[in-house]
């Protein structure tokens, strides 16, 4: 097998072969489309690389990219890799306090962002400076494999900044399909829709892995369900990633049944539990083998995968381990019986050396024989298929009964008037925690607490039915569909009424 090729060098190789083909189409909501060919991407990324190098970027250094979705995000990341630096994508709209916390933790040599305060000890470049790099040399740079090349940020369960560094080479391996691979619908030369925020791991990685496989990326500035469907039709999109909340908003669009999504070869989803009704809707719409779900963590300590066809025989499962051993352990780190919920511990096969390094946090919980947990709960069936429950901090102990928010959310999301929902536990004098639902209604719809409670009673055991409901105009999800439940707990006094 050929030697690994750094991600930045891989762009050079592709541009030399297909310089005039489109590499990136930027299609903002409500704005005109612009196209970068492979030759454009290569020359501009080379100029950006030289600009970053002039500011101190190079092997072993760290570059923060905190830009909105757009071509500049790709130029900054690829440019950093071309000089051997590590890239950390961050949310562009972080408040100054969080900006300072991350830059202090990471120690970057360059921050690429608009509207940020200049970090101590680092250069600050904005899109204007990247645009101004057009006068620099645009020729190819010497080959280099960044190691490490990528990191992602996480608030963690504490809310304090945490960075997950991938210490492995950030490289393309010719002849080796990345990620889930061609067998699961990710192949060379596809058209890929990038509708998620690039500061999240899945959209960021799939987009750049796609470039290394000669994908034509169709990039939006933000997720809009109607716009995304327009782009699928217009560009005949073949591969796309969506979080379940994005999938739901597309499926609830008026007239969605008449839209042409026949080009889709793979809808890949992860990031959150997918309600069964929603999974079935997508399977019915595009076919079971085109719906792929994966469960794992940014720490790369193991993952599972399941096709829609497998899921139909085991509804609710996230699949079996993919080159991964899985154990379900109790609080005393003992294996639990098959079918019993416990903490999920995984160990990847054929991996030598660490797959992650934390900045700002101690290592994840690991057993003496190398199984690691990042706090997720679940159970295994007799054939080794994994079923998720919830993360330990999210589980609600309601009078001694464990209630998993994802199950309650899935039931509530079936209601046609509900656009989004999150379930949290509120303090209760009698029960310890009571189930509280925060609901976003679909546009123009009305629903009362009593009506929603009655709907839940038809689908859930009594202890899982929300004892209080709060309606909000919009749940505070980010562009990738992520939501921190701890930020939803309202200032409601403790009550003891049954």
From TrEMBL:
Domain named AMP-binding enzyme C-terminal: which ranges?
407-482
Classification via InterPro entries? AMP-bd_C (IPR025110), AMP-bd_C_sf (IPR045851), AMP-dep_synth/lig_dom (IPR000873), ANL_N_sf (IPR042099)
Pfam families according to UniProt: AMP-binding (PF00501), AMP-binding_C (PF13193)
Q: Which UniProt keywords apply?
A: Ligase
* Domain AMP-dependent synthetase/ligase, first and last residues per copy: 14-348
- For this protein, what is any one GO molecular function term? medium-chain fatty acid-CoA ligase activity
Q: Which family does it belong to?
A: Belongs to the ATP-dependent AMP-binding enzyme family.
Q: What is this protein called?
A: Acid-CoA ligase
